[in-house]
Write a structure and sequence with these properties.
This protein has helices at residues 6-24, 26-30; strands at residues 46-50, 59-62, 67-71, 77-81, 93-95, 98-100, 107-109, 115-117, 126-127, 129-132, 135-138. It is globular, with a radius of gyration of 19 Å. It has a four-stranded antiparallel sheet, with no helix packed on it. A four-stranded antiparallel sheet has the order 5-6-7-8, with no helix packed on it. It has 142 residues and is of the alpha+beta class. Helices cover 17% and strands 29% of the residues. The longest helix has 19 residues, at 6-24. The structure holds FE2/S2 (inorganic) cluster.
Length: 142
């Protein structure tokens, strides 16, 4: 006498689960690279590559780590998450210093993280970055 028919519970759960997924549209955005899971920004410092890879006034996109690193004319480095702030797609294109999101076409400035083209309205999230033994290290706590 303790159990109830499961049909009514399942109906409720299904309705609850579908709403947020459809609203975010993440499933369509994150599945393009063969199933590496949802794109994510590093949660710990990661070694990205040789510091010499990023020239003054230029930028490098590190696809596996979802990080973009740029170097100002004065030589200082900046790093940003390359996860689009619009709906969470991993940005996979860098033209010069402009990042282009494959999902809805938002563009960001890799030098500042600023939005250059909507629909995104929030700048890219910046990450700590430093050079260690000639390598670029970026991520929280770097
Ligand atoms: S997720 Fe929509 S433009 Fe990037």
């Amino acid at each position: 006498m303790s159990g109830r028919p499961s049909a009514s519970r399942r109906t409720v759960l299904r309705g609850a689960a579908l709403t947020p997924v459809a609203g975010l549209g993440l499933a369509a955005c994150s599945g393009g690279d063969g199933g590496g899971g949802a794109p994510a920004t590093p949660t710990a410092p990661v070694v990205l590559g040789a510091a010499s890879e990023v020239s003054k006034g230029g930028a490098q996109l590190y696809l596996d780590e979802n990080v973009v690193v740029s170097r100002a004319e004065n030589g200082s480095l900046k790093a940003f998450s390359s996860i689009c702030t619009h709906a969470g797609c991993a940005i996979n294109k860098l033209t010069g210093t402009t990042l282009v999101c494959p999902c809805h076409g938002s563009e960001f400035d890799a030098m500042t993280g600023a939005v250059l083209r909507e629909p995104a309205t929030v700048p890219l999230h910046d990450l700590a970055v430093e050079t260690k033994a000639g390598k670029i290290v970026a991520g929280p706590g770097a």
